[in-house]
Amino acid sequence: MGLKCLVILFGLIKFCKANETMNTDTLSKVADSRATGGIYLTKWNRGLERGHQDTKKIEHRFWSPVQRESKFLSLFTVVTFPNGGCAGASGDNGTCMTARECSSRGGSANGYCANGFGLCCIFMTSCESSTSENGTYFVNSGYPAPYDGTGSCELTVIKSHPDVCQIRLDFDRFSIAGPEQMNHVCNQDQFIVSGGNPIPAICGTNQGSHMYVDAGIGTTNPVKLTFVTSGNPFERLWKVKVTQIPCNTIYKDEGCLQYYTGVSGQLQSFNYHPVSGLQLSNQDYGICIRIERNFCGIQYTACVDTVNNRSRAFTLTGNSNNPVNSMIGSGSGPNNCANDWLLIPCAANVGRLQPAQALCTDRICGGTFAADLSMQASSVLSTVKPFRLWFHTDSVEAPADMGNRGFCLNYMQQPCTNNVI
Ligand SMILES: *[C@@H]1O[C@H](CO)[C@@H](O)[C@H](O)[C@H]1NC(C)=O
Ligand SMILES: *[C@@H]1O[C@H](CO)[C@@H](O)[C@H](O)[C@H]1NC(C)=O
Ligand SMILES: *[C@@H]1O[C@H](CO)[C@@H](O)[C@H](O)[C@H]1NC(C)=O
Ligand SMILES: *[C@@H]1O[C@H](CO)[C@@H](O)[C@H](O)[C@H]1NC(C)=O
């Protein structure tokens, strides 16, 4: 599908339709209207303003199949554009299409695209609605004002095409009530994804974070996104961008709730915040990082914590209101990670020798980030491919675990060398 435009009189008049529905019939109608005084002139008068400079940039070709209108041939040029993504005037992203297509599909036009031939059509929707439009924004009731009320707000996401296999959710705004203080369970507000692969419910503040939902191959049940709000008054605000990912996209790793690309970046657990964040209970998911070309390893370092007098960027177990050492392994001893852990396959400290019995480790927890038992944080290297981490928390924090924030890690991929293969 695309946008097909007939340009008459060297760009003075433009007439655009969805590519698939444009046919010679339309062309003759336009040609006729022009011949009979041009009823389309007012409708497309905006084209008059920008026509001249825009058409210079466009590849022209003559519309040869219209034999009947041969006397107009030299005046007509047909240009086509794909229904691509566009940036709307408001800063939101949309899909480029004609004004008529945009309103018939329930979007709202927000600025121009395709060199002024199309309109950037934004799809924004709220509670109890459904969408099959790529790039729909799911917002709270009353957005951009916050919503302070209780209930359930659901968006049903239907595949725009059977060839869509994943849905990416970008949390442009995400502020709902956080978990309770004792066991960090989301028992007041929750964001729930159902209909795809199992995804843990989350709550709190998650702006800037994302999720991938596996929607299955072919025509499948819709994916439902639900915000449940209950309990104490709270000013909730959300704006979730819902992108439909075609099956043939290079990203194919099923089972990664989060997926990062790039040589370096930052990973955070949901509701991470050094001051007010609380690690969420009942989490169980994988994080994947694309191996960039010519890179063989990945190094993780706890984020710099500038607000606390001791870093709380990695606090998973123990009473992290006090300094807590790192803990490793899957045993049940006091310094093992039986309940909450971040799993980094065969993690080894960088520049610090490990004890002989643990050349590399998998589960890491505690209140200090390192691949050995220590009060001293360390960068950690893993060369297991593909690059993945898994995060698991159980449903209990108190009394042993208190004040844990979760994790914030910076990652940096390591080039292939004699030591990193
Ligand atoms: C327009 O439609 C034709 C066939 O109808 C197709 O070959 C062409 O790729 C389409 N162009 C765009 C930009 O979608
Ligand atoms: C949805 O939009 C994104 C980005 O705008 C694009 O990469 C993706 O291919 C689109 N999906 C479909 C099904 O067209
Ligand atoms: C629009 O897309 C650009 C580029 O992909 C991205 O950087 C930006 O955050 C998007 N804006 C919104 C509001 O989604
Ligand atoms: C660190 O800050 C906490 C309160 O945020 C305070 O109780 C503690 O004494 C401080 N520790 C040091 C060593 O300054």
UniProtKB/TrEMBL annotation:
Specify one Pfam family.
CUB_animal
Query: Which keywords accompany this UniProt record?
Result: Disulfide bond, Signal
Q: Does the record bear Disulfide bond in its keywords?
A: yes
Can you list the disulfide-bonded cysteine pairs? 186-203
The residues forming the signal peptide are: 1-18
Domain named CUB: which ranges?
127-245
Query: This chain belongs to which protein, by name?
Result: (apollo) hypothetical protein
